[in-house]
Amino acid sequence: MGEFDYIAWLRRNTADSRSVIVGPGDDCAVLAASGPEPWLVTTDMLLEGSHFVLAEAGARRVGHKAMAVNLSDVAAMGGTPVAAFVSLGLPRRPDAEILAEELYRGMRDIADRFGTAIAGGDTNSWPGSLVINVTLLGRAGPQGPVLRRGAKPGDWLMVTGDLGGSIQGKHLDFTPRIAEALELQRHANIHAMIDISDGLSADAFHICEESRCGLVLFAEGVPISAAALNMADGRSPLEHALSDGEDFELAFAVGPEEGEQLLKSQPIKPTPLSHVGVFVEESSLFLEEAGMRRPIEPRGYVHRLR
Amino acid sequence: MGEFDYIAWLRRNTADSRSVIVGPGDDCAVLAASGPEPWLVTTDMLLEGSHFVLAEAGARRVGHKAMAVNLSDVAAMGGTPVAAFVSLGLPRRPDAEILAEELYRGMRDIADRFGTAIAGGDTNSWPGSLVINVTLLGRAGPQGPVLRRGAKPGDWLMVTGDLGGSIQGKHLDFTPRIAEALELQRHANIHAMIDISDGLSADAFHICEESRCGLVLFAEGVPISAAALNMADGRSPLEHALSDGEDFELAFAVGPEEGEQLLKSQPIKPTPLSHVGVFVEESSLFLEEAGMRRPIEPRGYVHRLR
After folding, report:
1. Contact (CB<8Å) B28/A138
2. Domains in chain A: how many in total?
3. In this structure, what CATH number is given to the domain that contains residue A51?
4. pLDDT at site A8
């Protein structure tokens, strides 16, 4: 199908949304300006062969991931997603139409779960590999935009879920922690938050850098996933939990009393909350293991430009 | 440089904007919700080899085009651009850093001219060709979002500038008609508008489809560019002006009295306004040439998925 047929298909398959005044098919989408909450905007590009292997993952899971990584960014700000904009660079091949539809269904399924309209996009074909770009708009949640800065020495670092070994499947199939981030704000004042895309140690260090402080991670506190325990590649399960990317769990800073309370009450069950560290004055990252504290490098996956 | 260094470079080079509360570097950008005007959102993906030849155009002009095509979409809605989000898929090559900076400078120059912040993005490297995606947010102008629907039989179709032969350079170097679209709204009630990306006849027909009417184009009224006169490829200059894509001029519908007035007063000088057609009841496209009226196909460039 040509570009215009795909837009027609999108229009038929776009759910109504109170926020979307004009959806796909005009020069721009139009979103209502209602409410005083600031807007959150995030964008992520997924590239075939770099972020996913299409033949292994399948188009629907790739679509899921492309939407979910953006939803995870809105979760990391404590916000509510509103509308997504999807650009595709589709490889020229006989089943491009099926590929486009499967990608879209994967995106749509997870977007629908969080009341997010796919309100526009741009579809292209080209001789290269599959490229998907999603830009997601959301509104700030009850505590306003929860930034990476705001952690204070003495604050606890806590995480949702368990960590490591996402390569075994979670990096494709994860559920973004939108609902959990909203629920957490009902129970505690979140000082800073990030989603774990580069690995716990690297992402926790991003909070440190923005908050101008340091962090002691507790080896015994890190929730290690079954996938990390099964990696069997010579690195320890703890190493995987500390430095594997794409867990898409939340790491956040709270005052110690509220942290204690969250740990006890576990308000986002069945998702566990763990106490994995404490922020300190000194601007470095430390790991405390068996009573010993040593500085560590904030390792994690860094995309390099060459 | 790695992804994080590029974000640092972006942060240093991002102009302050009243609308941007938090710029590049957190999980999401944060935009102020100020004012009742609806938001406009558009996104365009440019693919190397399909939309531009990097070696011919140069990175800075490619960056200009990637930003300008989105600005043109906001112009087509009669709006004011606010903030752009840029995703890059950079080929792995020794000068990737210079490429990224030149692209960014091209984007930044034209964004700055229209007070548009580059407020976020996503930078990746991969083995494939260059991919640029820009998502642009703007606010509706004084007449609200100007859609493609709204043209009425009897309305005039008018265009800014002159048309055809954009392949000779204008498709890379054009200035989006943001200022002109805002000025026009001070002089006339714009019933419908589009930017000419697929070619005058194709884009005018998009207005017809959305407005559920037809159009008679006047061959003698179409403003033919010098580039179209110089094409010398066997097709007439008029054919080029009617069907070449990427002029990025505006085509809009106004009532006949206001059209007459605009034609006489030329309120957006030095950019000319031309009267190129009249909308009719019958849902077809016609060309009137030397007093004869005949149906024509709405030709123009259609991206195909295979």
Report:
1. yes
2. 2
3. 3.30.1330.10
4. 72
pLDDT in tens, A49-90: 999 999 999 999 999 999 999 999 999 999 999 999 999 999
Residue B4 DSSP code:
H
Q: Give yes or no: residues A168 and A290 share one domain.
A: yes
Which domain-ending residue is among B88, B108, B139? B139
| CA-based nearest residue in chain A for residue B39 | A31
Do the chains contact at A40 and B49, CB–CB below 8 Å?
no
Which ipTM value was assigned to this complex?
0.93
Residues of chain B with C-beta less than 8 angstroms from the C-beta of A37: 33
Q: Cβ contact (<8 Å) for A49 and B128?
A: yes
Rounded Cα gap, residues A141 and A130, in angstroms: 34
* Residues of chain B positioned with their CB less than 8 A from the CB of A194: 27
Q: What is the pLDDT of residue B232?
A: 85
Residue B248, CA atoms < 13 Å, CB-side half-sphere: 24
- CB contact under 8 Å between A147 and B22, yes or no, is yes
Starting at the edge strand found earlier in the chain, the sheet holding A29-31 runs A20-22, A29-31, B39-47, B131-139, B80-91, B117-126
Parent domain of B252: 156-295
Contacts of B122 in chain A (CB under 8 A): 43-45, 133
pLDDT tens sequence across A97-146: 999 999 999 999 999 999 999 999 999 999 999 999 999 999 999 999 99
Whose CA is closest to A167, among A102, A235, A91, A218? Answer: A235
Closest-CA distance, A78 to chain B, in angstroms, reads 10
Q: Give me the CATH number covering residue A246.
A: 3.90.650.10
List the single residue in B with minimal CA-CA distance to A147. B26
Contact between residue A63 and residue A134 where contact means Cβ atoms under 8 Å apart? no
The answer as to whether A186 is a domain residue is yes
Reported pTM: 0.94
User: Are A262 and A185 within one domain?
Assistant: yes
Q: What is the DSSP string of B90-118?
A: EE--TTHHHHHHHHHHHHHHHHHHTT-EE
Which residues on A lie below 8 Å from B194 (Cβ)? Answer: 27
Per-block mean pLDDT, blocks of 10 residues, chain B (306 long): 63 76 94 94 96 95 98 98 97 92 95 95 94 98 98 98 96 97 98 97 97 98 97 93 95 98 97 98 95 88 46
Q: What is the CA radius of gyration of chain B?
A: 20
Same domain, B130 and B160: no
Task: Tell me the chain A residues in contact with residue B199 when contact means C-beta distances shorter than 8 Å.
Answer: none
Interchain contact, A28 vs B77, CB within 8 Å:
yes
